[in-house]
Give the backbone structure.
Amino acid sequence: MTSLVTLLEVLVCPLRSGRDDLAGEYRDILLRSASVRTIPVSEIIAEEAQRLRATHNLRMPDAIHLATAKTAGASWFMTNDAALPSPPGISVLVVDRLPAP
């Protein structure tokens, strides 16, 4: 699962580069894939994001992503931001630090 904010983040580079085809592929993966659930920002998620920002001094996108995961019942959150804290109730996994398969 992921936040709808992910769509806003991943489309920037392809659109700047004039890669509408790649932007369309990303859009399809995030919005139409059976294996990815994209969750819109609700009032409950916004309120949790505010708490996370206040408590952990997070940037707004990071707070929204973590709040989405927590609200949706995820037990872990994958990122490559090693500085991202693990708030109570969810473990932050840094992709680059995971053991190779």
Q: What stands out?
A: Strands lie at 2-3, 38-39, 76-79, 91-94. The chain has a mean pLDDT of 93. The chain has five helices and four strands. The two ends are 22 Å apart (CA to CA).
